[in-house]
Specification:
By secondary structure, this protein is α+β, with helices and mostly antiparallel strands. It has helices at 7-21, 32-37, 166-172, 207-218, 221-229, 256-273, 340-350, 388-403, 448-457, and strands at 45-51, 54-60, 76-83, 91-99, 106-111, 119-126, 129-130, 134-137, 150-155, 178-181, 231-234, 291-295, 299-303, 357-364, 407-413, 418-424, 431-438, 461-465, 469-476, 480-488, 498-507, 510-517. Bound molecules: fe (iii) ion and calcium ion. Calcium ion (CA) binds at residues 184, 237-239, 414.
Length: 518
């Protein structure tokens, strides 16, 4: 297999390794042995879906990452180790996995038997080569006597061509317990006004093309650093498959059967590149990725799938969701953003005794947003406004959750801007939950005029910024929640400074945005 690796490819990868080494990040510093590891573990290492007793470890063997991976057809034995310390003096768990061509030689090792609320370090060995070391952290004990504070980052929308991942460089250096990714991890299409780097190939429709697109994104050293520093919870939005798709309909691919074949390839490649358990492996065009993630009695994160099951766009007759519209259909109780089954599951979960904080992690702005200039009303049908009754049912569940002593926060991506919003069941009613949209890692945002118009027309949108890229940091304890929006000064530069842009508080028992500092 190694004889087949082209010389040019090898040189490029070594240069990539040197670039990563110069970052100085502890999880990407390369010694002589790891220099060769870079040729097998070119996409880094990751962990995800943390539980109180374990975590999923991920890597993918890919000596030729941008051209199919370069591993051939043979299965490869991979050893994984989890240690109490960065030097691997005390091993906590170890095991083996088989990386197979059918899964692009990816590894999803589900580690159990770890202690709650603790950091661990992990690494892989394959073909006598060791991977870089990753750090992860288990969730607190499920029924912890003293609920532990929780601090995490959330991010979305990282169009590769539109910028470098300075936001991830900053994130990797912070003391987070975990990271939530809310979708648009890859983009299937090239768009935006100023590119600093380029996709290869056009819009992917085949499995191999989606694999190469994920590999391109995952060669980025800052993205690798953020994966290596924390366990991630991941959901998807539309661009992992196709812009503005809804269930089996895509504006770009009219025939549903043809689109479902694309969706199957896209879901498969997503699974192969994410630190998620085998239970999320797709069967054809279907994959169950929504679920509850418990962080002791402090926090339940409900990770939702807003794409696979949703009703087709209202008011648009199958066209792109971009033009603003309004019609009675968007209010129809038959319509669902989550699909009947996921919606029923979530309502049932929210009817159980709550953790102190309930975080609804989902792709897009949940607050109503009248976007039309002037006195008329206009809504974006790809967002929750196209599924108003479905949103009302969820807000009813969150209000009932609050009545039982829980406090709900909604975290969102997709709209390439930072927003803080009071979520109300009626326009003048009290807030039942508080929403934060954490900007985009790189993807271009709305104009200042659009943001100003939204703020002017929608009272419950309390803060909005569309001119900066970045991510958000949420900290929860028994008294309250704080959220910090962190902004990248210039996403066109990998070395860009990243700094706090705004800070908010939410009190326990009193939903609603309190702006503390800008
Ligand atoms: Fe996006
Ligand atoms: Ca999106």
């Amino acid at each position: 297999m190694s004889a087949a690796r082209p010389v040019l490819q090898r040189r490029r990868l070594l240069l990539g390794g040197m670039a990563a080494a110069s970052l100085g990040h502890p999880f990407l510093q390369l010694n002589a042995q790891q220099q060769s590891a870079r040729e097998l573990f070119t996409l880094g290492v990751a962990s995800g879906s943390p539980r109180s007793d374990g975590v999923v470890l991920w890597t993918r063997l890919a000596p030729d990452p941008l051209q199919g991976g370069g591993m051939g057809e043979a299965p490869v034995d991979v050893r994984w180790e989890v240690a109490h310390d960065e030097g691997f003096a005390r091993i906590a768990a170890e095991g083996r996995a088989t990386a197979v061509a059918a899964l692009a030689h990816s590894v999803h090792a589900e580690v159990r038997g770890l202690a709650p609320g603790r950091p661990y370090w992990y690494r892989f060995t394959a073909e006598g080569v060791r991977s870089p070391v990753g750090r992860t952290r288990t969730a607190p004990a499920d029924n912890d006597a003293a609920p532990q504070p929780s601090r995490f980052a959330f991010a979305s929308c990282q169009q590769y061509e539109q910028g470098y991942y300075a936001a991830y460089r900053d994130m990797a250096a912070q003391p987070f317990d975990f990271v939530v990714h809310l979708g648009d991890y890859i983009y299937e299409s090239s768009w935006g006004s100023r590119h600093v780097r380029h996709h290869q190939g056009g819009i992917p429709t085949q499995l191999g093309e989606f694999r190469d697109r994920y590999a391109l994104y995952k060669t980025d050293p800052h993205l690798q650093a953020a994966h290596a520093a924390f366990p991630w919870l991941v959901t998807w939005d539309d661009h992992e498959v196709a812009n503005d798709y809804t269930d089996d309909v895509s504006p770009r691919t009219i025939d549903p059967a043809q689109f479902l074949a694309i969706r199957a390839a896209a879901y498969q490649a997503w699974y192969e590149h994410m630190p998620v358990p085998a239970s999320m492996r797709p069967t054809g065009a279907a994959a169950t990725i929504y679920g509850r993630h418990r962080f002791g009695r402090m926090l339940d994160v409900f990770l939702l799938d807003g794409r696979q099951y949703r009703s087709h766009h209202a008011c648009l007759a199958g066209r792109s969701a971009s033009p603003l519209a309004d019609c009675a259909d968007r209010l129809s109780p038959e319509r669902s953003f989550l699909g009947k089954k996921q919606e029923a599951w979530l309502a049932n979960e929210l009817a159980a005794p709550p953790a102190r904080w309930t975080v609804i992690a989902q792709p897009t702005l949940m607050a109503e947003a009248d976007r039309k200039r002037g006195p008329e009303h206009g809504y974006w049908m790809d967002g929750w406004d196209g599924y108003a009754a479905s949103r009302a049912r969820l807000l009813d569940s969150l209000a009932a959750n609050k009545a039982r002593g829980g406090d709900a926060l909604v975290i969102s991506g997709d709209v390439h801007a930072f927003w803080a919003a009071d979520l109300r069941r009626e326009p003048q009613g009290p807030a039942v939950a508080t929403e934060f949209v954490g900007g985009a890692i790189t993807s271009e945002g709305p104009s200042a005029a659009n943001v100003a118009n939204l703020l002017a027309k929608n009272d419950h949108l309390r803060y909005g910024r569309g001119d900066k890229r970045g991510y958000a940091h949420m900290a929860l304890d028994a008294r309250g929640c704080t959220v910090e929006f962190r902004a990248v000064e210039d996403e066109k530069s990998a070395d860009s400074a990243v700094a706090p842009m705004a800070r908010f508080a939410v009190e326990r028992g009193a939903p609603g945005v309190h702006l503390e500092a800008t």
